[in-house]
Amino acid sequence: MVTTAQAKAKYDQLVDRYEDIFFYVADVGKDLVALADPAPGVRVLDVGAGRGAVARAALAKGCAVTAIDASPLMMRRLAEEHPEISASEGDLYRMEFADGSFDLVTAGFVLQVLDDPLAALTEFRRVLAPGGTVALSLERQSVGRLAWFQDLSVEFFAPGGAAEPKAAQPGPMTFDQLDALLVEAGFVDLTRETVELPKPLDGPDDLLAWMMPRGLAEMIAALPPERGAEFRRRFLEGARRMHDDGGIVLEFAATLHRAYYR
Fold first, then answer.
1. Which Pfam family would be a valid example here (predicted)?
2. Rounded to an integer, what distance in angstroms lies between the CA atom of residue 52 and that of residue 40?
3. Which band of pLDDT confidence, cut at 50, 70 and 90, is reported for residue 182?
């Protein structure tokens, strides 16, 4: 979970590379808007818009699009590239819009990182007009064939390393949990779809390069230099075994959720 300040700092730094690093957001953004199926002219609010994957897809449908995000740089860039979109920095828990201002509220990969997703969904419902739609995407996290990387991360980065039992931590949000939150927030007629976007990588060095800007670089930098070098060596060994045993494929998947405010 991240605070608004942490999100702002993180995503301001990624403004030029966001959709290169998170390769799946553009395709899933189009899928999410297709599920919501807004008619031209529908008033859309895209919350946590980032570089505009969902907002752009809604704009292509002829919608009147408003976008907010904690990152002012993301919103400044989106407004420069797509002046038809009303893009601004905003707090999704206390949005500066009147009740019933929108016909569709979207949020791509947002709910899973919030400290209070129910409060956010309640605010989404407030700004929706009766009969309005909410459409959300949720990353489906699975260790899969990267179990070796999880074990290596525990050994090098967990307090006490592998010798110390891991404390019980709440897992990532599941699609059932998100549906339950939608119901609790007052939404009805839920629909859910799954999308899968596997990404093959050419080899061990490519896997390391893919993971470094996703937090691994900072984790390695916090280690003593010799320990950091040892982690890199062990990582590449594990990635090489994965490559030799069927290739390196990132098994990304997401669920799309649609519901209504009656």
1. Methyltransf_11
2. 18
3. very high
CA-CA distance, 112 to 175, in Å (whole number)? 10
Sequence ranges of the domains in the chain: 1-140+173-199+252-262, 142-169+204-246
For residue 20, the model assigns a pLDDT of 61
What is the DSSP annotation of 127-195?
Answer: HEEEEEEEEEEEEE---GGGHHHHHHHHHHHSTTGGGSPPPP---PPPHHHHHHHHHHTT-EEEEEEEE
> In the 8-state DSSP scheme, what is residue 107?
E
**22-35 residue pLDDT tens:** 778 889 999 999 99
Count CB neighbours of 63 within 10 A.
25
pTM attached to this predicted model: 0.80
Residue whose C-alpha is closest to residue 96's, from 119, 66, 136, 62: 66
